[in-house]
Amino acid sequence: MSYVSESSSLNKALRQQYLSLPQGNFCQVTYVWIDGSGEGLRNKTRTMDSEPKSVADIPEWNFDGSSTGQSKGHNSDMLLIPVCMFRDPFLLDPNKLVLCEVLKPTRETAESNHRNRCNKVMEKVKELHPWFGMEQEYTLLGVDEHPYGWPRFGFPKPQGPYYCSVGADRAFGRDIVECHYKACLYAGIKISGTNAEVMPSQWEFQVGPCEGIEMGDHLWMSRFLLYRVCEDFGVVATLDPKPMTGDWNGAGCHINVSTVQMREQGGIEHIEKAIKKLSKRHAEHIRVYDPHDGEDNKRRLTGRHETSSIHDFSSGVANRGASIRIPRQVGQEKCGYFEDRRPAANCDPYAVTCVMARTCMLEGEEDAHELE
Ligand code: ADP
Ligand code: MN
Ligand code: MN
Ligand code: MN
């Protein structure tokens, strides 16, 4: 059995000749959408006669939902509604990537489409100018599903030297990290940083601050770029929240949150109010923080490896073992933002920002439930 991905062993230099052929006025538009698993991404490409200037110029399309876990065979056409357009860092200008919402043939929202409801909530709270920043952790695997760069038999040295590391004996897969970063910048994704993580072959990048619905749009497309870059290199990125059992850190997707009041002088008061509201809805949030109602996060939120226990809510300044952390600088300046450390790496950012806005930013309880 070969452990080398076919894709990575193709001659990439040869590819360049064809990619640089002129394409006239035609534009290749790749539609990207979330499949029935709520985690996987799918894509397909079509030609447009001219370059779309905005997402409004890109027509609706459809796909076979019976092949993506999104419909039954007898009525399988699902609709793709373009919502956010990016430059394509693989086929280059003028070609585009477009993130889509999925609707049923009746134009009802598909089960795995959490964007629709998220957008409604973001509309309701838009006066608060909600900003989000998410820290996407992920693990690189070989196509044999073993962490990339780990010995075939046995384990690397214990955790300690890997976080923010440099060197061939500790930073595994930097090519992917750097290519992905450049690809995100080219595409127009608001990527704000990257670092090597505590477990070897685990990395993080940050997207944000993004306002409202933009958070989910940009994070989902950044994940697509990650998978696509990995494909070129013949490795796989997994968002499994605990890819290796034992004394190895899991992978989360911390969310940083603020409203205009929190960012203004004395905003800490508003941060504390939001944390109080969150403390009353711990169980509800845990159900939304991974795609399987908390089952995936159970393996990660153990109270060890810089996590809080899945069963308890806690908060504190500079405390990385708490559910909610107030960054030290925010504690000192008495304004800024807070961090919820509970979301799993494979969470849906639409679902997470949606529940966050409902809990912390909608006024009364009635209001928060009105959109059910
Ligand atoms: P950590 O110390 O938790 O590792 P990072 O530097 O990895 O923090 O990530 C911080 C995140 O917080 C970034 O995504 C950034 O965009 C986001 N962020 C910064 N300021 C704000 C703010 N005022 N509101 C919301 N998010 C913010
Ligand atoms: Mn971070
Ligand atoms: Mn991290
Ligand atoms: Mn963090």
Describe this structure in words.
The protein is α+β, with helices and mostly antiparallel strands and 372 residues long. It folds into 2 domains: 22-111, Roll (Ubiquitin-like (UB roll)); 121-370, 2-Layer Sandwich (Creatine Kinase, Chain A, domain 2), CATH 3.30.590.10. Helices cover 29% and strands 23% of the residues. The strands form 2 sheets. Strands 6, 7, 8, 9, 10, 11, 12 and 13 form an 8-stranded mixed beta sheet that branches. The protein has a 5-stranded mixed beta sheet with strand order 2-1-5-4-3, covered by helices on one side. Helix 7 packs across helix 11 (349-361). The longest helix has 20 residues, at 214-233. The N and C termini lie far apart (50 Å). The chain binds adenosine-5'-diphosphate and manganese (II) ion (3 copies). Adenosine-5'-diphosphate (ADP) binds next to strand 6, strand 7, strand 8 and strand 10.
The top level CATH class name of the largest domain:
Alpha Beta
User: Given the C-alpha coordinates, what overall shape results?
Assistant: globular
Total strand count, please? 13
Radius of gyration: 21 Å
Instruction: Name the structural class.
Output: alpha+beta
The secondary-structure element order is HHEEEEEHEHEEHEEHHHHEEHEHH
Bound molecules: adenosine-5'-diphosphate, manganese (II) ion
Q: Report the sheet-strand fraction.
A: 15-25%
Tell me the number of structural domains: 2
Largest sheet: 8 strands, mixed
Number of helices: 12
User: Could you say what the CATH architecture of the largest domain is?
Assistant: 2-Layer Sandwich
- Cα distance, first to last residue? 50 Å
Q: Which fold does the CATH topology of the largest domain refer to?
A: Creatine Kinase, Chain A, domain 2
Query: Percent helix among the residues?
Result: 25-40%
Overall pLDDT metric: 94
- CATH 4th-level superfamily of the largest domain: Glutamine synthetase/guanido kinase, catalytic domain
Contiguous runs where pLDDT drops below 50 for at least 5 residues: none
Pfam family, one: Gln-synt_N
InterPro entries: Gln_synt_N, Gln_synt_N_sf, Gln_synth/guanido_kin_cat_dom, Gln_synth_cat_dom, Gln_synth_gly_rich_site, Gln_synth_N_conserv_site, Glutamine_Synthetase
GO molecular function, one term: glutamine synthetase activity
Protein name: Glutamine synthetase
